[in-house]
Design brief:
single chain; mainly alpha; flat
């Protein structure tokens, strides 16, 4: 999916350059961009203060069932990640520990 998205973005960028005569400015949004996580953390921080947690948030975790999107996205944004093996990777027999560093 990521490769297809990149190809589509490249095609649109090339078409825009041809039609408009200038480079297309692109802002990526959604998972797994750090911008999305930054916005979500800001919302959570404001809500925590609103609820009376004067120190704001403690640790934040990105939780998901997709290593390539959820875990990678959270880690790129500097957020802890938790992989839930009940969705996409359920019973796939994939070594999910390869290249993983566990910290506590």
């Amino acid at each position: 999916a990521e490769l297809s998205t990149q190809r589509t973005a490249h095609m649109l960028s090339s078409l825009y350059l041809e039609m408009a005569g200038r480079e297309l400015e692109v802002t990526w949004c959604g998972k797994p961009t750090p911008l999305t996580y930054s916005y979500a953390i800001g919302c959570l921080q404001r809500k925590a203060i609103e609820l009376g947690y004067s120190d704001g948030l403690g640790e934040v975790y990105g939780i998901g069932d997709n290593v390539d999107v959820d875990v990678v996205g959270a880690n790129q944004a500097g957020v802890n990640s938790v992989l839930v093996c009940s969705g996409l990777y359920k019973n796939e027999g994939i070594d999910l520990t390869e290249g993983v560093t566990v910290t506590s």
